[in-house]
Amino acid sequence: MFDTITATTSGARDHARAQAAAAAADVAMPIVPASAFQTPPDGIDAERLTWAETVPGGRYTVKALARGTRLRLTDVDGTACAHVLLWRTDAPWERLNVADTVKVPWQAYLGAGHPLLSDQGRVLATIVADTSGMHDALCGTTTLASNTERYGAGEVHSLSPAGRELLLLAAAKHGLGPSDVAPSVSLFHGVRVDPDDGTLVSVGSAGAGRSVDLVLHLPCIVAIADTAHPLDPAPRYTTGPLEVLAWRADADLQELIDDDTTDPEYRRAVANSEDAFTASTLA
Amino acid sequence: MSITVTPRAPWSGVVPAGHTITITDLDGNQAVDTLFYGANDHTIRYSAQTTIAAQGSIFLGTGSVIRDQESRPMMTIVSDEVGRHDTIGGACSQESNTLRYGHHTKHQHACVENFLIEGSRHGLGKRDLVGNVNFYMYVPVDADGTLGIVDGLSAPGRTIVLRAEIDTLVLISNCPQINNPCNGFDPSAVSLALSETAELIA
């Protein structure tokens, strides 16, 4: 019966340890440490990277990020769709509030300068750069039921995982439950509202290589599910990879704090975030 | 039975599957912020996003199906005399009022306060609050994405009727907002009529 190399503990250990070296070079995976990432953004020293990961289509990732982090999401092939949730790390009952995120800035469509607001009148993150312009804050992500109806399956282990199933896992890994998986925003798949009757039209992707940068005002757990948008018209599930990079960017945050030319609602959201941070850190 | 929800007040009650609740905008242009939960399983709760995605429209009206976080039907709007009810604007809160109108509005009563205190009677907490329906509130989206709460489309006596598809806990905040036109700058009463045996908890 001991006739394979994994029939013994030492053989199984040797077999397991050989796998990392044998991995294909192009597999979607995290680079740890992030500073080992080979192609950092222009002007960013790799040593500053705190997160470098490629998420395959149909998968998710989650990480707690510091205040002052700049997060860049890139739609590698033009077929990614990043469904994003944010919870405040030091107070996870404070989270992204999508209604306030569109109502307070008087703007339904996400783009550069748009704040991602919490339910406590604070800005958790600001979109500081956007080469896509194709996003959605209205439809949320997909569900087990909707993907089962649409593609025949929606389970995490299926070939068409539903966004909510993925976000439930991301939340669970930070001690959070289904009640914490609240409405989300979707990047890289646009939806537009007919101004006459309120009906929705999918306007899809802006193409390969487009990216969105966020700067965090408060420490946040960031959960990202890369899966097809609920209104994706493609007949089959074809979601592609999403690149996730993050780096320390305190100067970028300071620039947002100091900019007194932005809208009054945004100024007060920034002030409220600074107020909470200062009070809780005695900075 | 029929009851009146006074201006600025919360209300909650259970509408059993197959029964209806009728909301009447007594004085016109009164925003009725509303959340829905499974009466027997509070992990079932309204989702504006699945509702919007499933019907392909941001507005609620006759025929709209109110869906939960798993996109399962909770209620159906079977009759509506107004149209274009909002579900993207969410509830007013003390905190968001500081952003929208200034810090001097921090201590004005707000819908989230109503949801929290009324929800607490059912064991619901802050984590359980999600984007809600605003009956009788109108939030158009312009071609460039600009949106806002504008003058309502309702009028005194207009009604909307919802039929429960599952036993549904209905949580209402009769919106106290006075800084935008959602209530015509004058919060007013609404009446609720529950069909037959519907249970009144509040």
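qc> Chain A has a mean pLDDT of 96.
qc> done
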